[in-house]
Amino acid sequence: MINKTLYIVSLTLLFFVQSVVVHAQHDKSDRWEKFRAEKVSFLTDKLDLTPEEAQSFWPVYNKMEKERMDAQMARRELEKQVRDAGETMSDKEIIKLTREFAQKMDEEGTLATKYNEQFLKILPPQKVLKMYKAEGEFRMYMFRKYRDQREGETKKD
């Protein structure tokens, strides 16, 4: 009897945890899609791309964004390793970790250089400069929006 009850409770708990995880992943995916859509709209508005420019620009920009995100995630993982590194690490381990960290930073810079050249082949230089400005403006817009939402939530409490 106890085994059957334990089994049912365990199974119920497993389904509950699984549904929470799936819901959290779905929420994260929805937020990411909303963020992406807002960014595309923001950049499209700021860059004033012609249809021909947009057709060439967006596939390259999306590829850059993916590569940049992958590089940033890898760097963040190394940042975590650096933060968690203890004094018990050998000099050899520390050297390896610091070199990997520097390499990841270098990769991000190489990506920026690579894609800058591609954008200059697609867009007039003025629009490439506008793109960089618009990305910065979008980041500031999102920071303000997030801050305002957080302040709104604390006022409700």
From TrEMBL:
| Keywords, alphabetical | Signal
**Which region is the signal sequence?**
1-24
Q: Which domain of life is it from?
A: Bacteria
Please state what the protein is called: Sensor of ECF-type sigma factor
Species annotation: Maribellus luteus
